[in-house]
User: What shape does this take?
Amino acid sequence: MKKTNKTSFKKGFTLAEILITLGIIGVVAVLTLPLLMANYRKHVVENKLKKFYTIMNQAVKFSEAEYGEFSYWDGFESGNPDAMIAWWNKYFAPHVKTLKIERINNVNYVYLADGTKLQIFNYGYGGIGFAIHIYFYPKASSHTNVMGKDYFTFYINPNTNKNLAVVEPYKFAWDGTEDALRYSGEYACKASSAWPHYCTALIQFNGWKIPKDYPFRF
Assistant: This one.
């Protein structure tokens, strides 16, 4: 007797099964893509904050080698945008790649080569007593203006920043605790704060990572 050869068949996916699979993949993508994008935007902000902190303090060291200890540098008059430009050009511009300085409504915006920008204000009187606020924008083209989300506060003050870097996240009147950064007074990093200056310090406190329960979305 002749042996009959049995032909084996491999079962493939039906069109319906393929469509169902693609539909599931589409739903998962729709659900996860916003989270992935938000995490990416947070990661960009974290890196730019850390980079800005580093390059600014490196610039201080270079300028101190030329002009002496920071606390004896020239100050600049509060509300004088020309004096602010001269101060920046003297101490920082030679060591921080600056593309341009744009003045809008008597406020100077310094644009850096990495696509970021900053504003500088002096709320003191020059010399040892000066208190310089720097508003740092990780995205120079940002069209919104929310502190702790679109821009972050750094601070230059020989008294507040004693034993710290010259350019530090804003820590005026901070007691050194995480709770104070989150909940204490008008500077606390929370959505209801009038001036959430402490948000920069909170991110630094968390290892330059934006906490999962951060009050602002990216």
